[in-house]
Amino acid sequence: MMISKKITLTVKSTIERTIIFSLAAVFIAQQLTHWEPLSFMLGSLVFIAIALLLPQLRGMTLWLTVSFMAVGVLLLLLQKAETRFWFEAAGINVTLVTLFVFAPLFGIPVRIPDYIEALNRFYETKVRSRSVLFTGTQLLTQIMGVFLNVGSIPVVYHVVFVKPHPGMSRLLANALNRGFAGAIFWSPYFAAMAVVVSSLSLNWSTLLPYMLGLSVISLFVSLAVDYKGLRNAEINPRPSEGEVIRQAEQAANTGKTAFPAGLGVYLASAIIVILVLEQFVQLPMVLITCMAAVLFPLVWCLSKGEFATYRQGLANHVTVTLPALKKEITLFLAAGFFSGSIGTTGFGASVPVLLELMPIPISLSFSIFTVALITVTSMLGLHPIVLVTILATGIDPEAVHISSNYFAVLLLGSWGISNTVSPVSAVNNLLAALFKKPVHELALPNYKFAACMAVMLLLYLVAVKI
Fold first, then answer.
1. Are 90 and 336 in contact (CB under 8 A)?
2. Among the listed residues 120, 390, 139, the one whose alpha carbon sits nearest the alpha carbon of residue 257
3. Tally of CB atoms within 10 A around 308
4. In terms of Cα–Cα distance, which of 244, 234, 232 is closest to 124?
5. How far is residue 189's CA from residue 195's CA, in Å, rounded to a whole number?
6. Rounded mean pLDDT, 451-463
7. Residues in contact with 434: Cβ distance below 8 Å, sequence separation at least 6, in sequence order
């Protein structure tokens, strides 16, 4: 009986992985050939994937997915939409599934044992100041998050807590949370960037300078918000004489304690590769990312004699990481279908009309409306992808007197900010497990940060004059 059950689960997992890989393969083929029948095939695969994965969902994710599908179907029926619109609506967020399949491969070289060991030594021997520890943790999470996504949280957590930091646990949880938000701002491998650049037909390289600027601002805002807590934290920035001797002995035995140069070169090279390919290869950003994700990490690991690390990382991605994303895949596909159905109602044209009733410029009212709506609904448990997809696909930037670049920065900034206060975000739930605290307790200290960042985002958009 047990053997039969195990075989059934294995077959089911294989079918699920096959559907997910098929979605990515058909999407790539459709993007390369623009053959219309592939759009119908893609839409069909989306409906099959949702039907297959839906029974495995629980709680809020289940209710949201069912609601999106039910309302989407109802709206399309009321609009008497043609069959083509049903399949096109279903395929809106397949871009994200394709990223889930390929983008995590960029994170494999980051886990090369020598890099992680050097990073541990660096943190243990060089990071002593409270402010440096706090800001360094946020910055490291941001950089690692660009490549490892949520996987960056446990990696940085174990690096930071290679030695105890009394009185700093809550502050470091904040730093980890906000660092990941910074990665959302500018990472080319995240769902946020994929939705925005594909919906608004923009280049990632065009947005990069603006989003890097916003991520730097987030470091200063975070430090300012928790400055009082850092001053009161029970941590001794000056190690004891015995600690100094121990660190000196460790440095002598293990070699240099500087930030691992090889890791820094890889992280910089991975970004440069995307920038160069985007300039010289006439393909959508998602396809460029997938192409680079397949080749660059493999070449890097081979050049370092770490093919075993690559092989283990690839196997872990296919058998562990990708199956663990089934909840997100189902929700994102349903959210895409819902946003596509909203588009048939003329929703995008009604928003500017309503905002013009307010006694302030429509560009400002729309910006405030967007930041507030995405952040508040995220606090209530709604994933930001829902509203970002609806707004990106349904609102014409010119109708609200803003540029496409302005709109993109507004959406990406709002998504990153809202992620810090969401009780259902993967980051907050992972941090809750690591720090053994309720998820709401970890999200609550970030309300002040989110409010300050929302104001800074609006000021930043005015200042840079995109």
1. yes
2. 120
3. 9
4. 244
5. 11
6. 97
7. 153, 154, 157
